[in-house]
């Protein structure tokens, strides 16, 4: 009997409420899973240039040590896939909701993911003026959803939930150090040929919950202090959560178009 797919869940030890949330989510699905302690940006050795080179991370708004720690946490998950000799696995962050049919979806995804492949369950756009564009050409049925090819990787982000094959894990794990980019810089991974094919689950199967960020993306120290004050103040916490939900909807805008994707397999 074939083993059910496995999920690796990345969780910071200092945010146990997120662990409780994702465990409750996964309990309803019956998927095998392992909680992995995330690398904490507050404890990261920033002097070790064999581990992190911040040049490409500083440009990303927010707390770049935590961005680097996030990349290292995802790298640890890839190494676990290789250690357990799995054909691939689902990688989840701890602040998401998942569908009841997660096992069935992941089994379908695993059957289609060949070579160095990545399938995003949750994703968003980088540029406010453009939605994520997905191609309807070459769509692969996955139960009630479809696996679609993105049109423009420059505008694709998100590492909240995705299936990654062992071959992709091996290429990334063997080349990514020192960390120079965020965990969801998929265009970089594709251009480096660490990933040969990227698809997106449509409609999305994984959605972020309105937890406060543990990375701290913000444009200024003033905004960071305002955000922290809101999170600690009764009444304002609800306003902050409402704002996060609104932003998630905004940055998740997607459009499926009738045009071939230049990123479809065989078009590199």
| Class of secondary structure makeup | alpha/beta
CATH architecture label: Alpha-Beta Complex
Work out the helicity level: 25-40%
**Number of separate structural domains:** 1
Instruction: Tell me, briefly, the overall form.
Output: globular
Largest sheet: 9 strands, mixed
What letter string, H or E per element, gives the SSE order?
EHEHHEEHEEEEEEHHEEHHE
**Name of the top-level CATH class:** Alpha Beta
Residue fraction in strands: 15-25%
Distance between the termini: 37 Å
Count of extended strands? 13
State the strand order across the main sheet: 2-1-3-10-5-11-8-7-13
Extract low-pLDDT stretches. 216-222
Number of helices: 8
Task: Tell me about this structure.
Strand 1, helix 1 (16-27) and strand 2 (32-37) form a beta-alpha-beta unit. The strands form 3 sheets. Strands 2-1-3-10-5-11-8-7-13 form a 9-stranded mixed sheet, with helices on both faces. A two-stranded antiparallel sheet has the order 4-12. A two-stranded antiparallel sheet has the order 6-9. Mean pLDDT is 88; it is low at 216-222. The chain has a single domain, classed as Spore Coat Polysaccharide Biosynthesis Protein SpsA, Chain A. Helix 3 (64-83) packs across helix 5 (166-175) and helix 7 packs across helix 8. With 268 residues, the protein is of the alpha/beta class. The protein has helices at residues 16-27, 55-58, 64-83, 102-112, 166-175, 186-191, 221-232, 236-251, and strands spanning 6-11, 32-37, 88-93, 96-97, 117-120, 124-125, 132-142, 145-150, 156-157, 161-165, 197-202, 207-208, 254-257. It is built from 8 helices and 13 strands.
């Amino acid at each position: 009997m074939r083993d059910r797919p496995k999920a690796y869940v990345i969780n910071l030890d200092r945010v146990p409420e997120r662990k409780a949330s994702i465990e409750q989510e996964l309990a309803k699905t019956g998927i095998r899973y392992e909680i992995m302690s995330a690398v904490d940006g507050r404890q990261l050795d920033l002097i070790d240039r064999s581990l992190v080179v911040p040049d490409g991370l500083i440009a990303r708004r927010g707390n770049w040590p935590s961005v680097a720690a996030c990349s290292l946490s995802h790298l640890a998950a890839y190494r676990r896939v290789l250690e357990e000799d799995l054909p691939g696995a689902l990688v989840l962050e701890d602040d998401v909701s998942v569908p009841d049919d997660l096992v069935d979806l992941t089994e379908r995804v695993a059957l289609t993911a060949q070579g160095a492949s990545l399938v995003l369950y949750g994703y968003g756009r980088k540029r406010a003026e453009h939605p994520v564009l997905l191609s309807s050409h070459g769509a692969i049925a996955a139960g009630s959803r479809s696996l679609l090819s993105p049109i423009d990787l420059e505008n694709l982000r998100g590492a909240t939930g995705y299936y990654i094959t062992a071959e992709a894990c091996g290429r990334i794990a063997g080349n990514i150090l020192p960390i120079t980019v965020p965990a969801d810089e998929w265009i970089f991974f594709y251009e480096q040929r660490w990933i040969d094919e990227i698809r997106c689950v449509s409609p999305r199967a994984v959605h972020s919950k309105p937890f406060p960020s543990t990375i701290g993306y913000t444009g200024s120290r003033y905004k960071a202090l305002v955000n922290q004050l809101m999170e600690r103040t009764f009444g304002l916490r609800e306003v902050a959560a409402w704002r996060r939900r609104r932003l998630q909807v905004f940055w998740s805008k997607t459009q499926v178009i009738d045009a071939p994707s230049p990123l479809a397999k065989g078009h590199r």
